[in-house]
Amino acid sequence: MGTWATSPVAAKNASGAFGAEGTDGTTLREIVHVSLGGSSVRVVLTNEFGEDSLTVSAAQIALSAGGGGIVAGSSVQLSFGGHPSVVIPPGALVVSDAATIKVAPLADVAVSLFVPTQTVSVITRHNFADATNYAAAGNAVTAETLTGAKPMYSWDFLKGLDVKADATSAAIVTFGDSITDGAHATRDKNVRWPDVLAARLAADKKLPRLGVLNEGIGGNRVLHDTTGPSALARFDRDVLSQDGVRYLVIMEAINDIGHAYDTKKPYDVVTADDLIAGYVQMIERAHAHGIKVFGATLTPYVGAGYSSPAGEVVRQAVNTWIRTSGKFDGVIDFDKVTVDPAKPGVFLPAFDSGDQLHPGDAGYKAMGDSVDLNLFK
Question: How far apart are CA 356 and CA 365, in angstroms?
Fold first, then answer.
C-alpha cells in the first residue's frame, strides 16, 4: 500500500556525470515523511526520464534521527530480486524486495542510495522536496551520521514507499501543482495540505487506514507540458500506477489559466471548456479503475504575478463547474476556505504566503483541516 510518493521530472545534468562528490561515487540520504505505518516496506526507485542506465550499488532504509542521521540499529539493507545492487534501464523504475522494518504512522524515514560515478545525462528527480536531503562522498549508506554531507533539496531517483497493509487500507492521491507540492511551506515541517490531511486521517480511528500520496509538481498544468509532463500526460504514471489507490483529489489548472491570460506574455491559450474537458478525461480514466474522484476548487489568485481579470473569469467558471457539474464523487472547496470574504478572488491575508498565489503554513493547515473525512468512508 502506498504510504509516500512523489512525482519525478527530467532534470538535465550539465556535467553529464553523477557521483562527483567522491572519487568512487556518492551516497544520497533522502528523508521522507510517511503517512501509513507498517511492519515491512518496499522502496520504488526511478530512472523514468533517464537516457542512460542507472546503477545503484547499495541501498538501505532506516528510521531518521533528524538531520542526516539515522536511528542506531534501525538500518536494513534493501535488495532487488535478492541482489544488493540494481541497474535501472532508461525509462524504467524498480521496486525493492520487502524490507522488514517497523515504521510508525507519520514517521520520518531515511533512504540511503550509493550511486557510483557514472554517466547520467538526465536525472530523474522531484525538484522541490520541501525537505532537506543529503549527499556525501563515497559509500556511506550504513553510516549513522554522514561526514561532510552537503544538503540538497530534491528527491533524486526516489519515487515512492509502500508498506504492508490489510485489505481495508487504501491510498489517496493528491494530484496537482505547487499548491499541492507545498511551495512556500516551511521546509522540513511537513505542513503541506496533504500532510495535514494525513495527520487527521491517522488520528481518526473510525476510518480505514489511509495513505496520502503527494503527486504535486510546481508549475504543472492540465493541458500543456511545462515543469514536468502535463497532468493528462502523467496521469497513468502518477495516479493509476500507485499501489492501492482508491481515492483521487484533483486540484490543478491555475497555471494553465495564469499563463494563458497573462497580460504581459500570454501563451498556450485555453478556455474554461478546454480545462473542463481535461478534467473529464481524468475523471473517466480514474472511474474506469474504480477510483473515486474529488474535485478541489482553485484557490484565489488575484494579485499574483500572472493574474488578470480575464483569467479570473475563467477561474471562477472552472470552480463553478467543479462545484455544480455532478461529475465528481465529491467536492473540496479550497477556494471558499482561503478567499478573503471582503475581496472576491483574493487570498485571505492570514493564509497568504505573500505572493497572492500560494498559501503560507496557516493557509495549508486551513486547507487540510477543511477536508471532510466522510469522503473517505
Answer: 17
Distances (CA, A) of 166 to 38, 169, 244, 362: 10, 6, 11, 34
Retrieve residue 296's grid coordinates. 478541489
**Global pTM?**
0.97
Question: Measuring CA to CA, which residue among 98, 103, 90 is closest to residue 34?
Answer: 103
Q: Return the CATH fold of 166-376.
A: Rossmann fold (3.40.50)
- pLDDT tens-digit readout, 153-183: 999 999 999 999 988 999 999 999 999 999 9
Q: What is the pLDDT of residue 212?
A: 98
147 secondary structure, DSSP code: T
- Label the pairing between strands 155-156 and 25-33: unpaired
Quote the crossing angle between the two packed helices 193-203 and 361-370, to the nearest 10°.
Answer: 40
CB within 8 Å of 294: residues ≥ 6 apart:
247, 248, 249, 250, 328, 329, 330, 331, 332, 375
Residue numbers of the chain with a pLDDT score lower than 70: 19-23
